[in-house]
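Hey,
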Amino acid sequence: MSYATEPAHMTASEAAGLIASKQMSCEELARSCLARVSARDAAVKAWLWLDPDHVIRRARELDKLAPKGPLHGLPIGVKDIIDTADYPTTQNSPIYDEMRVGRDAACVGVVRGNGALIFGKTDTVEFASGGRKAVTRNPYDPAHTPGGSSSGSGAAVGDYQVPLAFGTQTGGSHIRPAAFNGIYGHKPTWGRISREGVRMSSMTLDTVGWYGRCVEDLILVGTAFRITEDHRPVTVKGLRVGLCRSPAWHAIEPGGALALTTAAERLAAEGAIVEELVLPDPFNHLIEAQNIIVNAEGGVSFLPEYVNAHAILAPDLRAKVDNVLGTTPEALLAAYTLADSCRPVFDGLFGPDLDVVLTPSAPGEAPMGLHTTGNAIFNRMWTLLHVPNVGIPCGFGPHDLPVGVTLVGKRLSDARLMAIAKALAPIIDTEAGVRMRRLRGTAN
């Protein structure tokens, strides 16, 4: 399926095929993406650091080389809490303004070694945790947030400025922007991707993921990380889908409720067996446990800035170090213990009676205003469970902004989950052409 007329409008998979067959050069794709940035970024503001001359030089160098891997010549945006050798890593903090680390984070090294073109650094919530928000705006309506903390990465892929980008998730920082920007996102199993060179805010939760414009794009990046594509056939008829409204259902909005219902009805119409999945009672306490853990571990993470740059460290980050919530060691241990006990229980649900879980990606559409990145309540439990997620667009909400749903698998089932997502996405996401036409109308 393709609606592309310009290289920048292509999926990563389409572009990779054309580059591999010499029908398009790396430089052609890079220039098309740069033209889109030039036309749109004054409104979208996705980038903190981008050097067009450097991008063209690197693209020309890639054109001289034999393909280095599955990502050869594909531009990728990098969230600015992730180190790169060729750009600063400021973490959107005045503490680290123009800070250059001089080396790649492990995840950047992997994609660069597989031929990817490191395009630039995307805006983020400060430290991907709190403090300053990104200035990035939703490409569908600049009065609305693109989500966060992976704000710039989600908007850059959603606005057709780059086909791929890295994000990270501690609560809902990766999957929620995927929904708000009408794109696909993969949050892998926790620990599946190295976090070396990535600013940490929670050792127990932080996970590196990536965005694309279709499931095939997510699979393509996954192969670079040795997530071998699962070629076993997926038969939609008879597939067991657990419809999980989750303990956060009280926070659902009309757009989110409609997206979940629509996705379930579309799958059932194709023969999938969609049944309600109500998790055992202990799972009702995981959202609270995630909040306890993220604040306690944030206090550890931000202690260096607290000690050395107290005056310019954001108050909400200082509050974590000061333990304003008053979290006791006993409460933190109880949160860890609850999560440890729930993870194998959730994994054990999969088998003859369950192939995949379907759940909301966010309460609904992107909220109005840049003072917020939206509510992560529908993501927190899954992040704490360490399970892989694939975010899939599913239509538009009452304000004509994108909404999405999430597919969830058991831990370390990333390849199988993406194979299932590849089969289900064309059924769930029937508005890809509408999204393309809407955003193509904003600029060339």
